[in-house]
Amino acid sequence: MNNDVIRIPLLFIAICAIQVFVLNHCLLFGCALPMFYLWFVLTMRKGMPRWLILMLSFAMGLTLDMFSNTPGVTAAAMTAAAMAQPYLLELFISRESDEAFIPSSETLGTRSFVNYTIVLVTAYCLVFYTLEMLTLANGWKWLSCVAGSTVFTVVLLLAIDRLTHRK
Fold first, then answer.
1. Which of 10, 37, 68 is closest to 153 using CA atoms?
2. Which residues have C-beta within 8 Å of that of residue 123, sequence separation ≥ 6?
3. Contact, 7 vs 127, CB < 8 A?
4. pLDDT at 4 exceeding the cut of 80
5. Nearby residues of 128 by Cβ (< 8 Å), 6 or more positions away
6. Average pLDDT over residues 37-55
7. Strand-pair partners of 28
8. Of 60, 69, 95, 135, which residue is the least packed, with the fewest Cβ within 10 Å?
9. What is the distance between the terminal CA atoms of the chain, rounded to a whole angstrom?
10. pTM assigned to the model
11. Is 69 exposed, middle or buried (0-12, 13-18, 19+ CB in 10 A)?
12. Quick one: average pLDDT of 10-21?
């Protein structure tokens, strides 16, 4: 817990800075945006209070909305991801796991972490692009944005995980 007091604010600031100053300018094919900030929700420890995960995720989403010109979209989608995260994590870990359990390929195992990442990122992208477009009238654009951003984000998050948890 004491480690979280230092880790979470530093992670919050670093992720926001990387997303705003670097990754928001990396739009592939006009639709695939890397959403590195999902790392924040993805790696929340098991025993963290749900209200705290929701508040921190909402704050990060709101911060990114201010810099990305997406009024409330990122905040709403991050809050939805934070609501789903504890339940999704329960699907991929054993019931006997420690409260200080932090999800990674090292702790979950590679296959489980990849599946956990894919499910969370896909759910996030579905919510994000549905709210951003507010219509499914242009279904191909919506689908290409969801699919492209999901793939780009999953690859980025798995690469970051591999770099931070080398064996």
1. 37
2. 80, 81, 84, 88
3. no
4. no
5. 35, 73, 74, 77, 149
6. 88
7. 32
8. 95
9. 25
10. 0.88
11. exposed
12. 88
pLDDT, mean over the chain: 86
DSSP, collapsed to helix, strand or coil, labels residue 32 as strand
Q: Which of 4, 119, 132, 10 is nearest to 69 (CA)?
A: 132
* Average confidence (pLDDT) over 123-136: 87
Cβ–Cβ < 8 Å for 15, 63: no
**99 pLDDT more than 80:** no
Torsion of CA 21, 22, 24, 29, to 10 degrees: 150
Identify the bridge partners of residue 32 per DSSP, sorted by sequence position. 28
CA 44 remoteness from chain centre? 10
Q: Distance between CA 156 and CA 115 in Å, rounded?
A: 14
Do residues 106 and 167 touch, judged by C-beta distance below 8 A?
Answer: yes
CA distances from 118 to 18, 135, 162 (A): 21, 24, 15
- Tell me the two tokens of residue 144: 């290409």
